[in-house]
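Task: sequence design from structure.
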C-alpha cells in the first residue's frame, strides 16, 4: 500500500469523535477497568462482595461498599397495573358505611384525576366486598383474598404510605424502575450491576421474568426498556428469561457447532474486537466481548437453573400447582429462588393484570389467587434455606386505586381508577423489621396521615441495604452526574432492623 493511501485511510479514522475518544483513553481506560471487573482486569485489592482471589464473580465500579451491607441480592415482585390496596391490605370500614356517598372535596382537595374519571359528575365511595381479618403478633389486617400471605405477616413489613408522582401506567412504572418518569435512564438492576457487579460469572447480574395474570389478561403491556441499561454500558442491561424452548434468545449454537469450534470462533472474534478497541477506544466494544463470553458460559448454566423437574413434591405443594406450568407467576417465583441460590444480584419478576378499572371484584379475586400462594412460598422457601437473611424481597405495583368507583356503582360490581397519592407495598428479608406496618392513611384510604414514603425513599432504602449510599453511586452523562434517586430520596430508617 502506498504512503499516500495509508495517510488517506488514517485521516478517515482520525475524525473528531475518535480523536476525542482517544484523548480520553487515559481516564476512560481506568473507569473501564473498574467497570468490567475481573473478567478482563486483575486487581490486588478486595472486591465489593467478592474477594479479589475468588474464581467467580465480577467487581463493579465501586472500589468498596459505602457501609456494611445487610443483603447480597434483591428479588423484586413487581405487580404491574396497580393492585388495589383497599381490597388487599388497607382496611377501611368507613368506605362500606358511606358506600355510594360522593367523595368529599375536603378529602380529594383538588387532586388531579386521569382522563378516565375526570369527567364523572360524582365519585361514589365504595369499600371492599371482601372481608378483612387480623393476623400475626401485631394484628395486621389482611384481606381474605390473601390467605397464604396472611400466614406470613410476621415475616413481612407493610408500607401503607407509599406515594408517587405519576398518574398513568407508563410513566409510573418507569419511575419505579428507573427513578425517572421519562424513558432513557438505567433501571434499578442495571445500577446495581454497574455499582457492585456480580457474584456469579456464569449468569447475568440482572435477570428478568415475566408472567401475565388472569385478572386482566389483556392488560397494560411492558416494554424492554424497563430493564434496559439506559446510558450505562449494555453489559448491565437485564437479561429476560422466557418460558420457551430457548429461555434466552440467540443463546444456542447452530446444529453441528462443537464446543471447541465455538471456543475458537470466540477467541478469534475477541482478538478482532480488541484490535477494534485499540483503534477506536469505544468501551462498548469491551462490553460486546464480555457479552459473548457470558453467552458462552450461559449455554451450560441457563439450562441447569431453568430446570425445575428435580424439585421435590413438597416444593410444588408450597408454590402451588401452577409452579409446574412454565411462564406462570408461581413458576417464576420458583425460578427466582433458584437464581437467588446462584447468587444473581437482582431478580426482577413482572406480573401483569392488576389494572382493574371495571369488574374489580371478579378480576382481583383471580389476580390475587395467581400471586398469593407463590409469594408466601418464596419467603418461606428462602427462609428455610437460610437465604432470606441476605435477600430482600419486594412486592408492589406502580400506584394504588381510588376509594371511589370508576363508572357505575352497582350492588355487586365496581371499578377503581389509578391513585398515586397512597398505596401499599411489602418488603421482607435481610435488614428489614419483620411483622410491622409502617405509615398510615386517613379513614377514607385517600390521603397519607403518617410517615409518607416516596418512590425515591424506597429506592434509597433498597440501595442502603446493599451497602450503597444512593447519593454517591453516580454516572456522568452529557455533562451531568446522574443517580437512581435523581435529587431526592431518604433512607426509611424506621423499618430497618
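Answer:
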Amino acid at each position: 500500500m502506498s504512503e499516500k493511501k495509508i495517510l488517506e485511510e488514517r485521516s478517515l479514522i482520525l475524525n473528531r469523535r475518535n480523536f476525542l475518544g482517544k484523548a480520553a483513553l487515559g481516564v476512560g481506560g481506568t473507569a473501564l477497568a473498574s467497570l468490567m471487573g475481573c473478567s478482563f482486569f486483575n486487581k490486588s485489592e478486595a472486591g465489593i462482595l467478592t474477594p479479589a482471589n475468588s474464581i467467580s464473580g465480577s467487581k463493579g465500579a465501586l472500589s468498596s461498599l459505602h457501609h456494611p451491607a445487610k443483603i447480597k441480592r434483591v428479588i423484586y415482585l413487581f405487580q404491574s397495573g396497580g393492585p388495589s390496596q383497599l381490597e388487599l391490605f388497607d382496611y377501611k370500614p368507613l368506605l362500606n358505611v358511606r358506600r355510594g356517598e360522593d367523595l368529599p372535596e375536603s378529602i380529594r382537595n383538588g387532586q388531579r384525576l386521569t382522563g378516565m374519571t375526570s369527567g364523572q359528575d360524582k365519585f361514589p365511595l365504595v369499600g371492599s366486598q371482601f372481608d378483612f381479618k387480623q393476623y400475626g403478633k401485631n394484628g395486621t389486617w389482611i384481606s381474605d383474598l390473601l390467605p397464604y400471605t396472611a400466614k406470613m405477616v410476621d415475616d413481612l413489613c407493610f408500607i401503607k404510605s407509599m406515594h408517587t408522582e405519576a398518574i398513568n401506567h407508563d410513566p409510573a412504572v418507569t419511575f419505579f424502575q428507573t427513578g425517572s418518569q421519562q424513558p432513557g435512564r438505567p433501571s434499578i438492576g442495571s445500577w446495581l450491576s454497574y455499582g457492585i457487579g456480580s457474584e456469579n460469572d456464569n449468569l447475568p447480574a440482572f435477570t428478568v421474568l415475566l408472567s401475565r395474570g388472569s385478572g386482566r389478561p389483556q392488560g397494560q403491556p411492558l416494554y424492554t426498556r424497563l430493564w434496559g441499561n439506559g446510558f450505562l454500558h449494555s453489559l448491565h442491561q437485564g437479561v429476560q428469561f422466557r418460558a420457551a424452548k430457548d429461555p434466552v434468545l440467540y443463546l444456542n449454537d447452530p446444529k453441528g457447532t462443537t464446543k471447541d469450534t465455538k471456543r475458537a470462533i470466540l477467541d478469534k472474534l475477541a482478538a478482532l474486537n480488541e484490535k477494534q478497541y485499540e483503534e477506536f477506544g469505544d468501551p462498548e466494544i469491551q462490553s460486546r466481548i464480555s457479552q459473548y463470553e457470558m453467552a458462552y458460559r450461559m449455554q451450560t448454566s441457563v439450562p441447569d437453573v431453568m430446570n425445575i423437574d428435580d424439585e421435590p413434591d413438597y416444593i410444588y405443594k408450597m408454590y402451588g400447582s401452577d409452579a409446574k406450568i412454565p411462564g406462570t407467576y408461581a413458576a417464576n417465583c420458583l425460578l427466582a429462588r433458584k437464581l437467588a441460590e446462584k447468587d444473581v444480584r437482582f431478580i426482577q419478576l413482572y406480573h401483569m393484570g392488576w389494572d382493574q378499572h371495571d369488574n374489580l371484584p371478579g378480576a382481583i379475586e383471580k389476580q390475587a389467587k395467581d400471586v398469593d400462594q407463590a409469594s408466601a412460598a418464596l419467603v418461606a422457601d428462602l427462609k428455610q434455606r437460610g437465604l432470606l437473611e441476605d435477600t430482600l424481597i419486594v412486592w408492589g405495583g406502580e400506584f394504588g386505586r381510588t376509594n371511589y368507583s370508576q363508572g357505575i356503582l352497582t350492588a355487586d360490581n365496581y371499578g377503581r381508577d389509578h391513585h398515586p397519592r397512597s398505596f401499599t407495598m411489602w418488603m421482607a428479608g435481610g435488614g428489614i423489621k419483620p411483622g410491622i406496618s409502617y405509615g398510615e392513611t386517613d379513614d377514607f384510604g385517600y390521603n397519607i396521615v403518617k410517615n409518607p414514603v416516596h418512590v425515591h425513599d424506597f429506592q434509597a432504602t433498597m440501595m442502603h441495604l446493599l451497602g450503597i449510599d444512593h447519593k454517591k453511586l453516580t454516572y456522568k452523562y452529557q455533562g451531568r452526574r446522574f443517580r437512581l434517586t435523581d435529587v431526592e430520596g431518604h433512607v426509611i430508617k424506621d423499618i430497618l432492623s
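The chain has a mean pLDDT of 86.
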